[in-house]
Amino acid sequence: MTQSDIEELFKREGQAHLFDHVSKLTATEKDEFYKNLSKIAGRITPNKLQDAYRKSLEHLQNDDNVSADIKTLPNTSYQSIIGNPSLAEEYYNIGLKSIQNGEVAVILMAGGQGTRLGSSSPKGCYDINLPSHKSLFQIQAEKIWRLQELSNCKKVIPWYIMTSKPTRAATESFFIQNRYFGLQENQVCFFNQGTLPALNSTGSKMFLSSPTDIVQSPDGNGGLYHAIKENNLLEDFKKRGIKHIYMYCVDNVLSKVADPVFIGFSIKYNFLLSTKAVRKRDAHESVGLIASMNGKPCVIEYSEISKELAEERDSDGLLKLRAGNIVNHYYSIELLEKRLNHWCENSTYHIAKKKIPYYNNLTGEYIKPEQPNGIKLEQFIFDVFPEIPLDRFGCLEVERSEEFSPLKNGLGSANDNPDTARLSYLELGTSWLIKAGATVSKDMHVEVSNKISYQGENLSQYKGQIFNKDNTLLELQNSKL
């Protein structure tokens, strides 16, 4: 599109105010400005953005989950491996074989910065103060490395890392500096999360962030689908012979990256899409719930169900609605081939009211509002769940202490902070050693490197060994907490 075509499009679709300062721009600035507008139009035109806002508003106003038929998932979709090691072993063997055959890839959602943690670096670079001082990225890379060793795989496990504009360069640099944590450079692929322009409070006007650009924000975790399409990842999956995708978030220090059990569960029952769940701590824990609504799989917010439904229990005394969402999913390539384009063309958006700093192109001032003055649109990754037939949708309940300890809040907060993440990681490794026959002093925790053990295996050499404050090992590091 020429500059005149771009300007005509944006003016025709209600954005004439963006051009009030164009006559004052240099030729270089003009080129940059129109180039940025062209990129936006290639993703979503102003009219389509406004239409997305109107549909989101209608959905918000018409949403009435109180009258919806909310139930637990049927037994054909929902299973638990808690207290069932033989079932877990069966699934593990199926999944490990698929990994061995080079059929599994991993997608990591890592676009966020560690702002709440007091860091401007990508969250994956964060050090939760383990004795080894390994970053989240290193912990997860070593899980992949160990799994490759365990499976004796014919091909490496591809690791696709979704970054964002603010974190991309720093993330890549961190991997280069650390020599990809022992992985091969060509098995790690970085790609960016998409962005969407912010709108004013009526959803009609875009903001300028500078004389040459528009205010944009990440499009939510549901933007993964657009990112897969825009970066041609589906073609890369097929080229590599990938059949199964394991997706997780960078802030979960306990995530079993490329988990053979979860993959094997999904393969055995021929699920198109699966998700992991942990049991709610209590009836009113603030966590999304994996359930069915009107006969379709969904994630429903804790605030959208009644007190009675939240507290209802089954015949075993467990909460009926207990499947806490941890944003850890399995996708079959079959599903992505069939539905990816549809998801991108028929996206569901959600409205978030925000304070949006902007550039006033009439006065040349940068404005920092004290009250919300606009909205951002975002997508949720689970918006596609209702499109999956129940008999092709799976949910695997796993043990929280072994698989879920997110890092979301800063030091001093009540939970999900660096202290709780570190303690969860150390307690898990310590439990592996004790199970293997080692003795660990009651005031000690031992850090077990994932390069030694993926999920507690390969520790028999420490049977009978006593771990106390004087013990140090090359790949086992201990800490008095």
From TrEMBL:
The keyword Transferase applies. Keywords: Nucleotidyltransferase, Transferase. Its EC number is 2.7.7.23. SUPFAM superfamilies: Nucleotide-diphospho-sugar transferases. Belongs to the UDPGP type 1 family. Pathway: Nucleotide-sugar biosynthesis; UDP-N-acetyl-alpha-D-glucosamine biosynthesis; UDP-N-acetyl-alpha-D-glucosamine from N-acetyl-alpha-D-glucosamine 1-phosphate: step 1/1. It comes from the Eukaryota. One of its GO terms (biological process) is UDP-N-acetylglucosamine biosynthetic process. One of its GO terms (molecular function) is UDP-N-acetylglucosamine diphosphorylase activity. Pfam families: UDPGP (PF01704). The keyword DNA repair does not apply. It catalyses: N-acetyl-alpha-D-glucosamine 1-phosphate + UTP + H(+) = UDP-N-acetyl-alpha-D-glucosamine + diphosphate. This is UDP-N-acetylglucosamine diphosphorylase.
